[in-house]
Design goal:
The protein is α/β, with parallel strands linked by helices and 266 residues long. It has one domain: 3-Layer(aba) Sandwich (Rossmann fold). It has seven helices and 13 strands. A five-stranded mixed sheet has the order 3-2-4-5-6, with helices on both faces. A four-stranded parallel sheet has the order 1-10-9-12, with helices on one face. Helix 2 crosses helix 3 and helix 4 crosses helix 5. The longest helix has 17 residues. The chain is globular.
Length: 266
């Protein structure tokens, strides 16, 4: 099957290992598909369909990875840096005009304050205790809207919006379609020749295009290559299984978001 949308990326993984994290049970391809379908049903029931923007503010980790994939599979994801100040969140939310914002259920930071001030409804994410990346999305705080019947998005539908850095002018919104993301993910997966023996290790922030596309989406674009999501800290140390694995490593490319190193021990 040719991957042409983020929905395809999220629902076509056949591996027993689709999403992982240190010390967590792997989510398999079937689990990722079920989660994608569940999130889509929640959003559609709340009247959120293709083209609707949903901001995401979550810490780096497997839940952020699956939140991006599942939300971008249903509508338009707008990930934001969780380290923004209340003033910065106010600017970005005002500029994006999202229909909702996804926050961790226990989040009490500036993103929630900004959302409240701007009257952006909150979708509460409750992380699961089982497989890495599992969660439930609570849409009870959203105002009543007519349900949307459309299931999967089209390649031309916008799946992701990001802002430019704003170093020379006011940050601008850059939209990426499902087709854009799928093509980039396929090209990266093909260039790296990803297979069932590979793990795509992500240490990039998942509000950054490299983390979202070069590791998370590219891994899913190869039907058999899992990816492992690591929290972005100054140093991450974890064990690699004894059997040989070729690890496609993505490291930060800019000091704007800090730096991280990874130590692999057999």
């Amino acid at each position: 099957m040719t991957v042409t949308t983020v929905w395809d990326i999220s629902t076509s993984v056949i591996s027993a290992r689709a999403v992982g994290a240190p010390g967590r049970v792997w989510m398999d391809g079937a689990g990722l598909r079920l989660l994608t379908e569940s999130v889509c049903k929640t959003l559609r029931s709340a009247g959120i369909g293709p083209g609707s923007r949903v901001a995401i503010v979550l810490p780096n980790g497997p839940e952020m990875a699956t939140a991006f994939l599942t939300i971008a599979s249903s509508c338009c994801a707008a990930p934001l840096n969780p380290a923004y100040t209340a003033e910065e969140f106010g600017f970005y939310l005002s500029d994006l005009q999202p229909v909702a914002i996804v926050l961790a259920a226990n989040d009490v930071g500036p993103a929630r304050d900004a959302a409240s001030r701007l009257q952006v409804p909150v979708l509460s994410l409750h992380a699961g205790e089982g497989a890495a990346g599992s969660f439930q999305l609570d849409a009870s705080a959203l105002p009543p809207r007519a349900a949307v019947s459309i299931a999967a998005p089209r390649p031309s539908d916008t799946a992701l919006v990001l802002h430019t850095s704003g170093t020379t002018a006011r940050p601008k919104i850059v939209p990426l379609s499902n087709g854009n993301i799928a093509a980039s993910a396929r090209n990266i997966a093909d260039s790296l020749a990803l297979s069932a023996e590979d793990i795509c290790l992500n240490v990039m922030p998942l509000f950054h295009i490299h983390g979202l596309i070069a590791a998370v989406s590219a891994a899913g674009a190869s039907p058999v290559a899992p990816y492992i999501q690591v929290e972005l800290t100054k140093t991450n140390v974890f064990s690699v299984p004894a059997r040989p694995l070729r690890i496609a490593l993505r490291a930060p490319v800019s000091t704007v978001h800090g730096s991280a190193s990874v130590t692999l021990t057999a």
